[in-house]
Task: inverse folding
């Protein structure tokens, strides 16, 4: 496995990787790799000849009060994990190499971003789209893999790829869960053991909505009520949002008549956790 | 010469163009081609093996009161001109093929855009950067050529290429002028014969500033005064701006100690004309 710390090194490594016409899949990450990331790397390996993993804690997607400095950095383990998964190139630039001091061009969503996490994290998706556009321009992958856990991010990236005609195919990686249903996340390590036990409430809330939906309940207010009730049973959980929206437009719906995205964000003391499920009518 | 009206056709034509490893230069235009454009095409031909010209009157860079509908469309002459200049591919999509009805991702400048034309045309450069990013993603040129007449656009595109790591080299094409000094523009055809005679005031204003600067005058207010005086002598010319700014940052300067951009915009009845000159201290 090669490791590149600068854009020029990465481009030169990629020229070699592609020299014999091999296709390239990119898995963008912020490091702190866990089973969720590894599942994306495995999808990437099936989809292309060579896998590139980027590891970059992107400052522009963190708000001023968010956990940029505290975000877990586990470079050595990440490196070993990528090596073990057969990654061809690890691209791990530092922020000074990714953003000039007078950086001033952003890729900005003007739709899909005012709801869910976008409402709680102003500017977050502008940062995400900007860095993903940069990574696409640096790596020029044939395929890129993103996890379904970040549902809104995934839809915004798919929209960006369509709107800006970026020549890359986006693959969606299913959510990977712990045995009790908690979606695996780098931020789970922020949880105390008590919070960890309660954190299963996100998945259980989604499951209760899904069970009612499968039982015939189509009214979003009723389903949202079920989700919020389950979250309220966790004493340390502070609800950020529990929403059910049109899966394509992320706009509010009253009844589920087309595929809908049920999405939850909950704050514990240090961790903000998200989870989601798509509800598809018969 | 091939002509593509859709993105898919263009991509397929480009695969053939590049099949034997040929490099590609892109000249983005809004059509209504004139000697200025042809000079860019000739630069492109020197810089790469194959030249692609895009011809697209981009709706997102026109304000609601601007001349999008009236913008000159001269497809047949443009086609003949491209053919005569040895262009390999003309990409001429229509707006419905370039923007989905729910298009919502924009490339947005957050600096360099609040002055000069950006101040007079809010949203203009967001439209320009978005369509240029799209064209770069569709054509994936090795080189792209832009005219120096659109000085602020050129600097914003160079900044975008740097900030988003777009793998393209930008070439600057010098301003092409009529015999009397008027910068050639598609919008010159909007001028009455009286206005056409007066329109030389832009170039003459720049020349008077340049002459004083070469004579030792470094004070921007004095040089701006010279430019404004010359414009005020043209009875049908309504000054939009006459500015001298830092050539790199486009920020105001009081004295010219680093390269400065002298830029003018003037409205005649139907035409808004721009021109500029770079003043470089010894």
Result:
């Amino acid at each position: 496995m090669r490791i590149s710390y600068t854009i020029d090194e990465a481009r030169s490594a990629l020229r070699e990787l592609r020299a014999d016409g091999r296709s390239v899949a990119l898995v963008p990450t912020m490091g702190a790799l866990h089973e969720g990331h590894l599942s994306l790397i495995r999808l990437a390996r099936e989809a292309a000849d060579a896998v590139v993993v980027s590891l970059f804690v992107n400052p522009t997607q963190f708000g001023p009060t968010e956990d940029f400095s505290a975000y877990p950095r586990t470079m050595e383990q990440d490196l070993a994990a990528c090596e073990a998964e057969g990654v061809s190139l690890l691209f791990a630039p530092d922020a000074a190499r990714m953003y000039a001091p007078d950086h001033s061009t952003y890729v900005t969503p003007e739709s899909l971003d005012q709801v869910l996490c976008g409402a709680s994290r102003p500017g977050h998706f502008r940062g995400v789209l900007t860095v993903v556009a940069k990574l696409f321009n640096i790596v020029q992958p044939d395929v890129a893999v993103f996890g379904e856990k970040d549902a809104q991010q995934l839809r915004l990236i798919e929209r960006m790829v369509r709107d800006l005609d970026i020549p890359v195919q986006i693959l969606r990686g299913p959510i990977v869960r712990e045995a009790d249903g908690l979606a695996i996340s780098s931020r789970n390590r922020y949880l105390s053991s008590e919070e960890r036990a309660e954190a299963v409430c996100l998945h259980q809330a989604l499951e209760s909505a899904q069970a009612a939906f499968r039982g015939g309940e189509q009214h979003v207010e009723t389903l949202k009520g079920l989700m919020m009730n389950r979250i309220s049973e966790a004493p340390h959980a502070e609800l950020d949002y529990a929403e059910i929206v049109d899966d394509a437009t992320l706009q509010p719906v009253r009844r589920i008549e087309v595929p809908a995205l049920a999405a939850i964000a909950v704050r514990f003391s240090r961790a903000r956790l998200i989870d989601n499920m798509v509800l598809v009518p018969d």
